[in-house]
Amino acid sequence: QVQLVESGGELVQPGGSLRLSCVVSVSDIRRYATGWFRQAPGKEREFLVAFRWNGGTVRYSDNAKDRFTASRDNNKNTAYLQMDNLKPEDTAVYFCAAGLSTLDFWTNFRSQRQYEFWGQGTQVTVSS
Q1: Does residue 38 carry a pLDDT above 90?
Q2: What order do you get walking across the sheet with 68-73 strand by strand?
Q3: What gap in Å lies between CA 33 and CA 124, rounded to an integer?
Q4: How far lies 57's CA from each of 43, 54, 70, 75, in Å?
Q5: Radius of gyration of the chain (CA)
Q6: Burial class of 6 by CB neighbour count within 10 A (0 to 12, 13 to 18, 19+)
Q7: C-alpha–C-alpha distance, residues 19 and 8, integer Å
Q8: DSSP state of 123
Q9: Running DSSP on this structure, what letter comes out for residue 84?
Q10: What are 47-103's pLDDT values in tens digits?
Q11: What value does the mean pLDDT of the chain take?
Q12: Contact of 127 with 16, CB cutoff 8 Å
Protein backbone atom coordinates (compact mmCIF):
# COMPACT_ATOMS: atom_id res chain seq x y z
CA GLN A 1 0.00 0.00 0.00
CA VAL A 2 1.18 3.50 -0.84
CA GLN A 3 0.06 6.63 0.96
CA LEU A 4 0.69 10.15 -0.26
CA VAL A 5 0.19 13.38 1.66
CA GLU A 6 0.48 16.75 -0.02
CA SER A 7 1.07 20.06 1.70
CA GLY A 8 2.11 23.60 0.93
CA GLY A 9 -0.90 24.94 -0.87
CA GLU A 10 -2.05 28.42 0.06
CA LEU A 11 -3.19 31.80 -1.22
CA VAL A 12 -0.46 33.55 -3.19
CA GLN A 13 -0.37 36.72 -5.26
CA PRO A 14 0.13 36.64 -9.02
CA GLY A 15 3.82 36.49 -9.84
CA GLY A 16 4.60 34.74 -6.59
CA SER A 17 6.14 31.35 -5.94
CA LEU A 18 5.10 28.31 -3.98
CA ARG A 19 6.61 24.94 -3.23
CA LEU A 20 4.37 21.95 -2.72
CA SER A 21 5.48 18.82 -0.90
CA CYS A 22 4.32 15.23 -1.17
CA VAL A 23 5.39 12.66 1.39
CA VAL A 24 5.15 9.13 0.02
CA SER A 25 4.84 6.28 2.49
CA VAL A 26 5.94 3.03 0.89
CA SER A 27 8.55 0.41 1.65
CA ASP A 28 10.42 0.47 -1.68
CA ILE A 29 9.89 3.84 -3.30
CA ARG A 30 12.37 3.17 -6.11
CA ARG A 31 9.84 0.81 -7.71
CA TYR A 32 7.46 3.69 -8.26
CA ALA A 33 6.96 6.78 -10.36
CA THR A 34 5.24 9.88 -9.05
CA GLY A 35 3.25 12.46 -10.87
CA TRP A 36 1.82 15.85 -10.08
CA PHE A 37 -1.63 16.77 -11.36
CA ARG A 38 -4.02 19.63 -10.78
CA GLN A 39 -7.74 20.15 -11.08
CA ALA A 40 -9.36 23.54 -11.41
CA PRO A 41 -13.05 24.04 -10.65
CA GLY A 42 -15.20 22.69 -13.43
CA LYS A 43 -12.24 21.26 -15.32
CA GLU A 44 -10.71 17.84 -15.79
CA ARG A 45 -7.66 16.77 -13.87
CA GLU A 46 -4.53 17.91 -15.71
CA PHE A 47 -1.14 16.21 -15.83
CA LEU A 48 1.84 18.38 -14.91
CA VAL A 49 4.95 16.28 -14.39
CA ALA A 50 6.12 12.72 -13.75
CA PHE A 51 9.41 11.25 -12.60
CA ARG A 52 11.05 8.06 -11.39
CA TRP A 53 12.32 7.78 -7.85
CA ASN A 54 15.36 5.87 -9.13
CA GLY A 55 16.41 8.71 -11.42
CA GLY A 56 16.03 9.43 -15.10
CA THR A 57 14.33 12.06 -17.18
CA VAL A 58 11.62 14.17 -15.63
CA ARG A 59 8.62 14.50 -17.95
CA TYR A 60 6.77 17.83 -17.97
CA SER A 61 3.60 18.91 -19.69
CA ASP A 62 3.78 21.94 -21.95
CA ASN A 63 1.86 23.93 -19.34
CA ALA A 64 4.35 23.09 -16.60
CA LYS A 65 7.77 23.01 -18.25
CA ASP A 66 8.52 26.74 -18.17
CA ARG A 67 7.46 27.68 -14.63
CA PHE A 68 7.27 24.45 -12.61
CA THR A 69 10.16 22.31 -11.37
CA ALA A 70 9.81 18.85 -9.87
CA SER A 71 12.39 17.45 -7.49
CA ARG A 72 12.65 14.71 -4.93
CA ASP A 73 14.47 13.74 -1.77
CA ASN A 74 14.81 9.98 -1.67
CA ASN A 75 16.07 10.07 1.91
CA LYS A 76 12.81 11.66 3.00
CA ASN A 77 10.52 9.95 0.45
CA THR A 78 9.35 13.44 -0.41
CA ALA A 79 8.54 14.95 -3.78
CA TYR A 80 8.43 18.67 -4.40
CA LEU A 81 6.83 20.90 -6.98
CA GLN A 82 8.35 24.36 -7.19
CA MET A 83 5.99 26.77 -8.93
CA ASP A 84 7.21 30.20 -10.01
CA ASN A 85 5.58 33.23 -11.59
CA LEU A 86 2.17 31.95 -10.60
CA LYS A 87 -0.90 33.12 -12.48
CA PRO A 88 -4.58 33.18 -11.55
CA GLU A 89 -5.17 30.31 -13.99
CA ASP A 90 -2.89 28.16 -11.83
CA THR A 91 -5.60 28.16 -9.16
CA ALA A 92 -6.51 24.53 -8.58
CA VAL A 93 -6.27 21.59 -6.23
CA TYR A 94 -2.87 20.00 -6.73
CA PHE A 95 -2.43 16.26 -6.34
CA CYS A 96 0.50 13.93 -6.23
CA ALA A 97 0.06 10.33 -7.30
CA ALA A 98 2.10 7.17 -7.62
CA GLY A 99 2.19 4.13 -9.85
CA LEU A 100 4.59 1.28 -10.44
CA SER A 101 7.34 2.43 -12.76
CA THR A 102 6.87 -0.12 -15.53
CA LEU A 103 7.27 0.09 -19.30
CA ASP A 104 3.49 0.17 -19.58
CA PHE A 105 3.33 3.08 -17.17
CA TRP A 106 5.75 5.18 -19.20
CA THR A 107 3.91 4.57 -22.46
CA ASN A 108 1.06 6.67 -21.09
CA PHE A 109 2.38 8.51 -18.04
CA ARG A 110 0.20 11.56 -18.71
CA SER A 111 -2.97 9.59 -17.99
CA GLN A 112 -4.27 9.59 -14.44
CA ARG A 113 -5.32 5.96 -15.00
CA GLN A 114 -1.64 4.98 -14.74
CA TYR A 115 -1.51 6.14 -11.13
CA GLU A 116 -2.93 3.71 -8.62
CA PHE A 117 -2.39 5.81 -5.50
CA TRP A 118 -3.39 9.42 -4.87
CA GLY A 119 -3.04 12.01 -2.17
CA GLN A 120 -5.93 14.10 -0.90
CA GLY A 121 -4.77 17.25 -2.70
CA THR A 122 -3.73 20.69 -1.58
CA GLN A 123 -5.44 23.94 -2.62
CA VAL A 124 -3.46 26.60 -4.44
CA THR A 125 -5.18 29.93 -4.98
CA VAL A 126 -3.51 32.66 -7.00
CA SER A 127 -5.24 35.96 -6.47
CA SER A 128 -4.53 39.54 -5.57
Answers
A1: yes
A2: 3-7, 18-25, 78-83, 68-73
A3: 23
A4: 28, 10, 11, 19
A5: 14
A6: buried
A7: 6
A8: E
A9: -
A10: 999 999 988 889 999 999 999 999 999 999 999 999 999 999 999 999 999 999 999
A11: 96
A12: no
